[in-house]
Design brief:
With 249 residues, this protein is an alpha/beta fold. Helices cover 27% and strands 22% of the residues. The chain is built from seven helices and 13 strands. The longest helix is centred in the middle third of the chain and has 17 residues, at 89-105.
């Protein structure tokens, strides 16, 4: 019997000083440990990918993190990217099939930023490759050349939609969030619903009403100073509660 539920965090694949590395930012790891009360387990994106059945047998939940990289547009019929270096094909190869399998069996999952975009693409949706160029949308990217505190500071409000998961988890129907994404949801995947919208109508959170387990995607970053934000604390706590409701082997 495990003392605490285990959450698998999907790594990014990078090359540093000519050496391949698999990494996750520490703040995601800390939020899983302290916010959700779970044991973080980093999942490397090897080639070929680790077997999805083995991964799902080793964890009680999954966290698909944000990343500087983007989902390869050929997975959703998009045009070739302007910057091919922003791709992470190893992460795509693991994450997209793993998401579909996790959803099918009801593994609790939380998706953040790129993770939310992965979720939408895995289930049949599409993305804006440049949100700021979409009609009616504003620039959701972080400000360059400023400290992290400013980049991750409040950027705009989100409006929580009535009747959804966020409305059940959070008392507020409008609150400020950070914004650090160049891409975002265009066509919403058929199984998903919009949980929160930015003032320009951009989808900022999604869930799946028919999901067998906890499923929430957030375009903002609730791992950033989560303990200082009541809404973010509530989200990590809800994820942790869902993990503990899942039978532990």
């Amino acid at each position: 019997m495990r003392a605490r539920p285990v959450v698998g965090l999907i790594c990014d694949h990078r090359v540093l000083e000519e050496q391949p590395v698999h990494l996750v930012l520490e703040r995601y790891i800390a939020a899983v440990r302290d916010g959700a009360g779970a044991l973080p387990l980093l999942i490397p994106v090897l080639e070929p990918p680790l077997a999805h059945e083995d991964l799902l047998g080793a964890v009680d939940g999954l966290l698909f993190t944000g990343s500087p990289s983007n989902v390869s547009p050929h997975f959703y019929g998009g045009h070739p990217p302007r910057d091919p270096a922003a791709a992470d094909p190893r992460r795509d190869a693991l994450s997209l099939p793993l998401l579909r399998m996790a959803v099918s069996v009801g593994v609790p999952l939380l998706a953040i930023c790129r993770g939310t975009q992965e979720l939408n693409v895995a289930l049949g949706g599409t993305l804006f490759q440049h949100v700021e160029e979409a009609p009616g949308r504003f620039d959701h990217r972080e400000k360059e050349g400023v400290p992290l505190e400013a980049q991750y500071g409040p950027a705009h409000d989100v409006a929580v939609q009535e009747g959804g998961l966020l409305a059940r988890l959070l008392p507020q129907r409008r609150f400020p969030v950070n914004s650090l994404h160049g891409q975002g949801i265009d066509k919403l995947a058929p199984p998903l619903i919009a949980e929160a919208l930015a003032p320009d109508g951009q989808i900022e959170a999604v869930s799946m009403p028919e999901a067998k387990g906890f499923l929430l995607g957030l375009q903002w970053h609730p791992e950033w100073r989560w303990a200082e934000n009541g809404n973010y604390r509530a989200l990590w706590s809800a994820f942790g509660e869902a993990l503990r409701r899942k039978p532990v082997p």
